[in-house]
Specification:
7-stranded mixed β-sheet, 8-stranded mixed β-sheet, 412 residues, 14 helices, alpha/beta, 36% helix
Length: 412
């Protein structure tokens, strides 16, 4: 038995109460129950209105779509008596009920090239999850595929910045486009306890708090890391315990500064022990790849490190490290906003500590700001070199978790 709130129930059944709308848009806080109620409502509408038609389910990637939407949707529909036949290799499933069968295709809208994947198909309806994360070309191509008479559009998303194209072109023009618009907050999900809601309010701050908890389309402004406290998150003397492992992070530049950081782990905390920061404009001379490599070796100073995570655009310096064969090198993921969120989480949870001797990263913490004039979430491209090497380091830790494995053996 699942209890739905009034907004969740309306998101499921709006199509049988008001058939004058061409679609629905649901936005708001994370975990507010938008996705489950919309996905079930989409299937109920499709099976009630059509037979032998094709429909589209879209997410940022097919993997995230299956994880966030399809798995729970199909489990609930099967409990309701629907029959599901999945064809995993071709990314679709057939849904049958009361002698009706319709096909549901899965699409990923990762980047601009994704529009070609959905081009050419004819759909009777489409549900787009995480719409604000998809490129405009993909969303518009998906909408154009819905040419069957009676087709409808279903969108859900978490808020982004107020100048995002989806807000300006769809949410702000919902009435003009004959779209039903429903805004959700955390209280609209009756399955969330007061303790869980309180925890979500602690997980975010600044613009991300307003977006993910309050559900507002808010511009990111001010310091990127306002939660960083120079008293709380720095150290003077090294901890007495032994470090379990070491990692080096690199943001490489020729004209721009190069910033390298040596990180050591104790328990759940990572300590930035030392840094190498070379600004050619400040020093009045440029360094070659080999000279920067010498600086890297001096920073490491014989310590057994796991790997060097490096700016992915620094191809020549990566080749220099690999040519010497002394350290394992890993190319960093360079999704800036996603990486910033991960760093914010680490700082907020006290998992990053900075040596007071690392003066350049401490300086950049006070200067690294959001670009208020960019029209999208991005930091100002100034005072960001130590910030970038720290971001590369934190995102590499996420990769470590994703790439982990377990092994067991049986006694014979």
């Amino acid at each position: 038995m699942i209890r739905f709130s009034d907004k969740q129930y309306r998101a499921m059944h709006w199509w049988c109460e008001d058939n004058s709308c061409d679609g629905i848009i649901c936005d708001g806080a994370v975990r507010s129950g938008k996705t489950l109620s919309m996905s079930v409502g989409f299937a109920l509408w499709a099976m009630n209105s059509f037979d032998g038609k094709s429909f589209g389910l879209c997410g940022k990637t097919i993997i995230s779509l299956k994880r966030n939407l399809v798995h729970d949707m199909l489990a609930l529909l099967q409990k309701m008596g629907f029959h599901v036949t999945e064809t995993v290799s071709r990314n679709y499933f057939d849904l049958s009920f009361c002698n009706k069968t319709n096909r549901f295709y899965l699409f990923g809208g990762r980047d601009e090239s994704s529009a070609a994947l959905i081009q050419g198909i004819t759909l009777a309806g489409i549900l787009m999850d995480e719409t604000a994360l998809m490129p405009r070309s993909f969303v518009e191509q998906a909408v154009a595929r819905c040419s069957v008479s009676g087709s409808k559009l279903w969108f859900n998303c978490n808020p982004d910045h107020p100048y995002h194209w989806f807000k300006r072109e769809w949410i702000d023009k919902a009435q003009e486009k004959r779209m039903l618009y429903i805004h959700f907050d955390l209280k609209d999900n009756p399955s969330l306890t007061a303790e869980v809601i309180e925890r979500y309010t602690r997980l975010y701050s600044g613009a991300f708090y307003e977006r993910f908890v309050l559900g507002r389309w808010t511009a990111a402004e001010g310091l990127v890391y306002p939660m960083f406290d120079s008293h709380k998150h720095t150290f003077g003397e090294l901890p007495q315990a032994e470090f379990e492992r070491y990692i080096v992070s690199c943001d490489y530049g020729t004209v721009n500064p190069s910033s390298f950081g040596l990180w050591g782990k104790i328990g759940e905390k990572w300590f930035r022990l030392k840094e190498y920061y070379f600004d050619s404009a400040r020093e009045g001379v440029r360094r070659t790849d080999e000279e920067h490599y010498e600086g890297l070796c001096e920073l490491i100073n014989g310590i057994d490190i796991d790997y060097v995570v490096c700016d992915p655009s620094a191809a020549s310096f990566i080749q220099c490290i690999m040519r010497h064969g002394q350290y394992r090198v890993r190319q960093a993921k360079n999704d800036v906003v996603s990486g910033i969120r991960k760093v914010q989480d680490h700082i907020r949870e006290g998992r990053l500590m900075i040596s007071k001797d690392c003066i350049d990263i401490l300086r950049e913490f006070t200067l690294y700001r959001w670009d208020e004039n960019a029209g999208k979430d991005c930091p100002v491209k100034e005072h960001d070199h130590a910030m970038d090497d720290m971001r590369y380091f934190v995102t590499s830790l996420e990769e470590d978790r994703e790439d982990g494995f377990a092994a067991i053996s049986l006694k014979r």
